[in-house]
Amino acid sequence: MDIRTLSRRAFTLALVASVIPLRLAAASPLDGALKALEAGNSPKAVETLTRLANDGNALAQFRLGSLYYHGNSVTEDESMAIYWWKKSAASGNAEAMYQIAHAYLFGGTAAKSVADPDREAALWYFQAASAGHAEAAYTLGLLFLAGKGVIEDRNEAIRWFRSAAAKGHLEARKAAETAEKTAPRAKPKR
């Protein structure tokens, strides 16, 4: 073989090797559904998301829940949003856990569906924060500071603020500093 033949083969192999990852990285059905949503093809997107969600795709479950919560491309239905978010949360999706908590704390239907919506929200914020969600940790700190859904506990609030701050949450850092400054000082024993 001459150098030209080797060069052509090397080029061909390089070209084939560069195309294979592109085929492997071709748009997944989830990517297709999200692009369809962006393009305004809502029925196709909702159909695909629903199929994927029913097949156990946690991200599709989360996105479908978000569509129902906000009434985007489907009729607004907070109960359906919670249903899909809980399925996604069961797969470890911290953002789904956070959204569930948020719905119990600030929503309408979700808050009415449980005896103590503040407590339910705190439980979900705790799960999301424990899974590394900074905003959930910050919000949980606020709940402990106010005694909303949990016992009022400044030290626990500070702990959650610090946890969120360690993940880059600026408001949590400020809240921790403020809570520490205003914390009652222990009186020295005589």
Question: What would CATH call the homologous superfamily of the largest domain?
Answer: Tetratricopeptide repeat domain
Per CATH, what is the topology of the largest domain? Serine Threonine Protein Phosphatase 5, Tetratricopeptide repeat
Helix content: over 70%
Round the mean pLDDT to the nearest integer and report it: 87
Helix/sheet category: mainly alpha
Count up the helices. Answer: 11
List the uncertain runs. Answer: 2-25
CATH architecture of the largest domain: Alpha Horseshoe
**Number of domains as seen in the coordinates:** 2
CATH class category name of the largest domain: Mainly Alpha
Give descriptors for this structure.
single chain, 190 residues, mainly alpha, Serine Threonine Protein Phosphatase 5, Tetratricopeptide repeat, 2 domains, elongated, disordered N terminus
